[in-house]
């Protein structure tokens, strides 16, 4: 929500970089990280940052409270890569497939406090069987569905206690509750965001109480999504908050009202390669391979198509968007209905394109070109992709 | 259009593979390659396969007429990677940004016959200046816009000759014409596909004649898109055909009528991780990170959402599609309006999901699990991603 006053990188500072390429504005990222940590501090709850957005060891170290965690990941590959870099406290936050249990145990045997997630009895039985088979004690959170968004059991369902009991009887460690308020992405006002956060908290706490009433200590009550993390007013009963995309923010988050355009810390650098004057189009060398195919703003009040186009210093051109994306071509146009002029961008001009969805756009790249105080200061690799 | 009779991989053959993972059915791929080569042979025109779809040296060797080419690429990174693997005749088929010319020259200096593409005078001047500066002769095709789809100058525009003259005066080698009938993706009948192919051919040949009338030999007339390559009835005047996605095919190509579902050679293997019985949903561990965000069938008569779901042998379940995709979660449902039953797929079951767009889905992975005669026989890496 703040305005950006940092010095702007000049076209000459960016000119040596290959295009398309991923840029990261370090001051904006640092500001985004500080904002969420400051928001959570008076609420008395720590952050377990989701590393799936950045997938970078350099960035993880800025996100985590300590060099060893806590952290959240979306794949066991991420868990393995971050563990190899010294992270010791990791939640794998996607309901586990039984065939992945051996890899999870292998990580724990390397000294990583990895916890896993289940939301049904079949998974719980598989976890219990694996614990029995290998004589290990897998810490397991039970996912609940706080808003009908995706995975998780319904609050109040007696299945919750049955899952915890199944886990415990097999020798697993039912550590508590986790939920993700993915439905908060549909919020369109501050009041709705605040309500989504409270709904998430209340559902998670209610389920933890249900477990405790049945004799399970449930020390962990883990909630989170970037919108609810920023708009929670009270986190009583919650023990940790997870969030990922806040580190960079993006056009979807700006469209929801969680950040402003000026907070978006990543962009894709592209070169103008041609024009179609009769169609008022500018062609650039960044297509969906560089931006991703994400169209997350398509159903928001302002559709940003494949991204909002900025000058090399990061200032948006009025209503200039990437209207079409092919694999390595992007077509820039003025947003339909706008009377803004098409800027004069000769062949070879550089532009920066803000992404709809930071997780998806960053995933198309292997490293970050880090900008600080208007200069390119570092190249931070992303961890190996894949599963 | 043929029916598949190859032996089916069993669930037990696939069980050792990590999920999500990319599967490649070698028999289907070989059949797709043979089909296009057989179609082009009587038309007297060779194939310059586009390697951007597979980005694999193993697959390139099956696509190309000889171990050294010819080949088409969409980035200089691809050109560099395939050149390092011995490919010598490469067309970089995206209009070049002036800042990339040094890399293009460096490849030529390593003995690669790399040709580049321009479609405007600014690019031609930049190419000419680089040729003068370095004393090199860059082979350059001029892109024309045969169907209003994207890049290229309009057929009949006198600019064509001016670009050729600018190139030649600087010491570059204006080798001829290239075009890409991307508009053929909107075709909805065989007659429209045949017409799109003829429109592409006629425009390219007309422009080559325009160049020849002005004194430029224009030995290359390069056309192509997967739909037009398969439906061309006559290629008089054309010297080469480019196509990429045909090697795998996908749901978009099936929707256009270029192939059948049984021809699609890649799929994403996923594990069932849960259910939402009240919403008739099955959750799997493949989301958009494994499938891509491509929704290329959204505007086709049959919307396949994020992909069509098959059993482990590759047979589609009736109307079972991936309705929603998050980063590492996919939500399977029966297609809206269908009365097909939701299959009984317990936690841990394996499914294979056919992609909307093979180029986009394959790009989310780092290797292919190659299936042949129902067994996993190889792991073929994709070249390094990035630019």
From TrEMBL, chains A, B:
Keywords: Lyase
Pfam families noted in UniProt: Ala_racemase_N, D-ser_dehydrat
Spans annotated as Disordered: 1-21
InterPro entries tied to this protein: Ala_racemase_N (IPR001608), D-amino_acid_metab_enzyme (IPR051466), D-ser_dehydrat-like_dom (IPR026956), D-ser_dehydrat-like_sf (IPR042208), PLP-binding_barrel (IPR029066)
Species this protein is from: Steroidobacter flavus
Keyword Secreted: no
D-serine dehydratase-like domain segment(s): 265-372
Transmembrane segments: none
Listed name of the protein: DSD1 family PLP-dependent enzyme
CDD domains: PLPDE_III_DSD_D-TA_like_1 (cd06812)
Family indicated by similarity: Belongs to the DSD1 family.
Bias (Polar residues) ranges: 1-11
Superkingdom per UniProt: Bacteria
């Amino acid at each position: 929500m703040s305005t950006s006053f940092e010095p702007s990188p000049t076209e000459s500072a960016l000119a040596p970089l290959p295009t398309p390429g991923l840029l990261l504005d370090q001051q904006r990222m640092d500001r985004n990280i500080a904002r969420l940590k400051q928001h959570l501090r008076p609420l008395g709850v720590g952050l377990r940052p989701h590393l799936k957005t950045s997938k970078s060891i350099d960035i993880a170290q800025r996100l985590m409270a300590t060099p060893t965690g806590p952290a959240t990941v979306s794949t066991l590959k991420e868990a393995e890569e971050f563990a190899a870099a010294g992270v010791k406290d990791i939640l794998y936050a996607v309901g586990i497939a039984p065939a992945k249990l051996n890899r999870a145990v292998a990580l724990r045997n390397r000294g990583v406090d990895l916890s896993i997630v289940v939301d049904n009895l079949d998974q719980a039985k598989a976890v219990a069987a694996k614990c029995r088979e290998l004589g290990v004690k897998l810490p397991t959170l039970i996912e609940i569905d706080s808003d009908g968004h995706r995975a998780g059991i319904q609050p109040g369902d007696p299945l919750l206690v049955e899952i915890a009991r199944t886990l415990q009887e097999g020798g697993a460690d039912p550590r508590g509750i986790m939920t993700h308020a993915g439905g908060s992405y549909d919020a369109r006002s501050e009041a709705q965001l605040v309500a989504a956060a409270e709904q998430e908290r209340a559902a998670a706490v209610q389920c933890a109480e249900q477990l405790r009433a049945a004799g399970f200590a449930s020390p962990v009550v883990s909630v989170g999504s970037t919108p609810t993390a920023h708009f929670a007013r009270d986190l009583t009963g919650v023990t940790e908050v997870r969030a990922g995309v806040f580190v960079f923010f993006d056009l979807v988050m700006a469209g929801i009202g969680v950040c402003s355009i000026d907070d978006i810390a990543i962009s894709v650098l592209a070169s103008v390669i041609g024009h179609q004057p009769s169609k008022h189009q500018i062609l650039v060398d960044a297509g969906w391979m560089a931006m991703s195919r994400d169209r997350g703003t398509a159903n928001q009040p302002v559709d940003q198509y494949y991204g909002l186009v900025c000058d090399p210093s990061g200032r948006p051109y009025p209503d200039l968007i990437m209207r079409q994306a092919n694999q390595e071509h992007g077509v820039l146009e003025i947003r339909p209905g706008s009377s803004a002029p098409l800027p004069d961008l000769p062949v070879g001009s550089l532009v920066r394109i803000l992404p709809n969805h930071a997780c998806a756009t960053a995933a198309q790249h292997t490293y970050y070109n880090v900008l600080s105080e208007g200069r390119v200061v570092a190249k931070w690799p992303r961890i190996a992709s894949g599963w």
